[in-house]
Amino acid sequence: MMTFEEAANACGIVAILRGVKPSEVLGIGDALFAAGVRIVEVPLNSPDPFVSIAALADHFKGRMIVGAGTVLDTASVDNLKASGGTISVSPDCNPAVIARTVAHGLVPLPGVFTPTEAFTALRAGAKHLKLFPAEAANPVTVKAWKAVLPKHAGIYAVGGVTPGNMQAWADAGCAGFGIGSNIYKPGKNAEDVGTSAAAFVAAWNALKRN
Fold it and tell me: What is the topology classification, in CATH, of domain 4-209?
């Protein structure tokens, strides 16, 4: 079974499918997989999100990491576990949500914006952090954090990341990137999603050669 770390090492792009419908999710998932994406999240403010998560988790079992985004409470973590998802992504740092995620054997990716929130998340059991909204920070922020955070802590920049600015974030120490509307937004078909995703995967692969 592929772990989150293995998937992130293969491709550190987390595709955020906010607003995706269950009727289209597998087609979009196939396009993402073909483009090289190996981590997908379905935010819980999407239509019937746990139906989509369950469909993706079953279809890509062992091949892609699937989880939920905008996870705000422990009940949602329980539903995520029941749906077969393995990562719990949040916009905030909620120690109770992190602890429940860890207790279920899932991977928490809490949202943080300050060193205090980052260390609170790590103390609650997180190993990876979501810098959100990244467009309101900059790579200097990540570089400063990396100087004081444990070496195992991975930082994922979410918000405002493009193929053109990815290098600066990576140079500062980001382990990966969450990409939303630049890959998927409601109304975008699978072919276009695949094309957008391929541009980000190409940028990721270029980073690994530098």
Answer: TIM Barrel (3.20.20)
Which pair of tokens denotes residue 38? 């190996």
The set of catalytic residues is: 41, 130
| Weakly modelled stretches of the chain, pLDDT under 50 | 209-210
Q: How far apart are CA 154 and CA 5, in angstroms?
A: 10
pLDDT in tens, 110-154: 999 999 999 999 999 999 999 999 999 999 999 999 999 999 999
Beta strands across the sheet bearing 39-43: 107-109, 87-89, 65-69, 39-43, 13-16, 176-179, 154-158, 128-131, 111-112
- Say if residues 195 and 3 touch (Cβ distance below 8 Å): no
Residue 176 DSSP SS3: strand
